[in-house]
Write a structure and sequence with these properties.
heterodimer; A: about 325 residues; mainly alpha; MetI-like fold; 2 domains; two-stranded antiparallel sheet; 14 helices; 2 strands; disordered N terminus; B: about 290 residues; about 75% helix; Multiple sugar transport system permease protein (chain B); sugar transport (chain B); MetI-like (chain B); transmembrane helix (chain B); MetI-like_sf (chain B)
């Protein structure tokens, strides 16, 4: 065997490499087909459909830029929807990130029983989003919910939470903080990876706790903060389930069946997010051309965001 | 850390030990408070699920009569067994299909060098990060042409053609495995399928388990997909979608609603406790390398 290999070393090697590559291609074939069929192609078709009027029943009708001019200059509600989504990007993402970091920082200091505390504080993140939203609408139910009962005990009149246009979004932020466990684990793993001796050296130099956080912990975990913010912003741009379910449950009008998305945005459009509005146009009213135009705008925003940030986040690079 | 602690008495000989105790107390007080906040909603929900429907409408927190009947009644109020079955079918088939299609893809992407690998990897990351709404319209039209809207198949079948996030996650995990064993197997004449099956799979079990659990949970919890594809056909609803519509249809029967909330959560919690280690490692793996 060794003799054969030595004798025909170069061609044999090359054909082995070639065979490896061919096998790799076979292994990747389904995934490549999936990317083309469910991602690349639909992306192109979305752009094409955005220049049409299309209701699924008859063939798409070319209307030029009409959908876009309506979207940017006439649609009375798209601004509200975009601003609601922007609100979640600007408030929900930083609040969740900071809370996750604080809790992770606390957990990173604990020596004994750290596994138990970690599990306890992670548990809320396990609850299925629909279940946690239904539970929170019940908990914050102004009349008889447990939160109202507790507030009553302190002599405080409970606000209307999910039924108050001014408080519906903040109520979802409270929920967002409650389920922040995933982020917490990511931060905790990063903090535990910070080399011990950096803290020891700083301690010998007389650095205070705050200084250690400021000059050692934060710079070391900065890439993870970047990762959390970018993925958080992308998640917030598509914020849908929590808002839609909260509206449905709080209004008592569930989103059932095409054409009856009546609860969307309740109370008073305060929870109408951009993706909900896209859904309402596309799949409740079958204005698929207009929905496609909204999708293209969302794509451009997300693509710009990814283009600006993706290279800086090393897990999103091929690396090795 | 120990060095920091031993170093401190030199600076503040008098208060060192007392301060340490105070810090310990403050930290643990904060932890207890956080744990209470984390668990209180769960406790309230479980307690309410055990009240009579009438009592659930009042401000009381502890059930007067422990009414376990809610967990039976909810199965009669809505076709819960069917919805539960739909969810199980959706989650199990998606996970199996994903494993078949995505484990080899992740392995090839992690170990074999070929032209276009960088582009393919970027495409997978972008597909994983872009909002699904961006491609929702054409994909919906595609499935409606195949007359599969109204069922969960449009959400299950694509997993046969790879799931971007799973491929990404498993590739990250495969990269952490030592290459020596695979190389040794190759020298012994083992092909890539053999290396994957006999050498890599046994070592990569935690990473594969994490990807499988994530996909299982995502399918089990999914609301947007079933809303898009099954909302007109309640026979196809998974339990998460059924729960979201429950109050609209059945008014304010909070005790039964909370029983259903508990039922939908139980499978997730049970799976979590069986596979906690792989799961937590998986979460850390998605972001820890920055």
């Amino acid at each position: 065997m060794t003799v054969t290999v030595a004798a025909v070393r170069r061609p044999r090697r090359r054909s082995l490499e070639g065979r490896r590559r061919r096998t790799a291609l076979v292994m990747l074939a389904p995934a490549i087909a999936g990317l083309v069929l469910f991602f690349g192609l639909p992306l192109v078709v979305s752009v094409l459909l955005s220049f049409t009027r299309f209701d699924l029943l008859s063939a798409p009708q070319f209307v030029g830029l009409l959908n876009y001019t309506y979207l940017f200059t006439q649609d009375p509600d798209v601004g509200t929807a975009a601003l609601n989504t922007l609100w979640f990007v600007v408030i929900l993402v930083p609040v969740r990130t900071v809370c996750a970091m604080l809790v992770a920082g606390l957990l990173a200091r604990v020596r004994r029983g750290s596994g138990v505390w970690r599990t306890l504080l992670y548990l809320p993140a396990l609850v299925p989003p629909v279940a946690s939203v239904v539970a929170f609408v019940f908990l914050f139910n102004p009349g008889t919910g447990p939160v109202a009962t507790v507030l009553q005990a302190f002599g405080i009149q409970s606000p209307l939470w999910f039924n108050d246009p001014a408080l519906a979004k903040p109520s979802l932020v409270i929920l967002g903080v409650w389920v922040t466990g995933d982020l917490m684990i990511v931060f905790l793993a990063a903090m535990l990876d910070v080399p011990r001796d950096l803290y020891e050296a700083a301690g010998l130099d007389g650095a205070s706790g705050v200084q250690k956080v400021r000059f050692i912990t934060l710079p070391t975990i900065a890439p993870v903060i970047g990762f959390a913010v970018v993925t958080g912003v992308i998640a917030a741009l598509q914020y849908f389930t929590e808002a839609a379910v909260a509206s449905g449950v709080a209004s008592g009008k569930a989103t059932v069946g095409q054409g009856t998305a009546t609860g969307l945005g309740y109370p008073n459009q305060s929870l109408l997010t951009y993706t909900e509005y896209l859904y309402a146009h596309g799949f409740a009213e079958y204005q698929l051309g207009y929905a496609s135009a909204m999708a293209v705008v969302l794509f451009v925003i997300s693509a710009v965001l990814l283009g600006l940030t993706m290279r800086r986040i090393s897990v999103f690079r091929m690396a090795s | 850390m120990t060095a920091v602690v031993t170093a401190r008495p030199r600076v503040q000989p008098a208060s060192g030990r007392g301060r340490r105790a105070l810090v310990w107390i403050a930290e643990h007080a904060a932890l207890v408070a956080l744990a209470v906040l984390a668990l209180a909603p769960v406790v309230f929900v479980v307690l309410t699920s055990l009240m009579t429907s009438q009592q659930a409408l009042t401000a009381s927190i502890i059930p007067k009569v422990w009414d376990w009947g809610n967990y039976v009644r909810v199965f009669r109020t809505v076709p819960l067994a069917q919805w539960f079955g739909n969810s199980a079918l959706y989650a199990v088939l998606s996970t199996v299909f994903m494993l078949v299609s995505s484990v080899p893809a992740a392995y090839a992407l992690a170990t074999v060098r070929f032209r276009g690998a960088g582009l393919l990897f970027t495409a997978i990351v972008v597909a994983m990060l872009l909002p699904p709404q961006v491609t929702a319209v054409p994909v919906y039209v595609f499935w409606s042409q195949l007359h599969l809207t109204g069922t969960l198949w449009p959400l299950i079948l694509p997993n046969l053609l790879g799931d971007a996030f799973s491929i990404f996650l498993m590739r990250q995990f495969f990269l952490t495995l030592p290459a020596e064993f695979a190389d040794a197997a190759r020298v012994d004449g083992c092909g890539e399928w053999g290396v994957l099956w006999r050498v890599v799979l046994p070592m990569a079990r935690p990473g594969i388990a994490a990807a499988a659990i994530f996909l299982f949970f995502n399918s089990w919890n999914d609301y947007y997909g079933p809303l898009l594809y099954t909302s007109e056909n309640s026979a196809s609803w998974p339990i998460a979608y059924g729960l979201a519509t429950f109050r609209g249809v059945h008014g304010t029967d909070w005790s039964i609603t909370m029983a259903m909330t508990v039922i939908i959560t139980i499978p997730v919690v049970v799976i979590f406790f069986f596979a906690q280690k792989a799961f937590v490692e998986g979460i850390a793996l998605t972001g820890v390398k920055g």
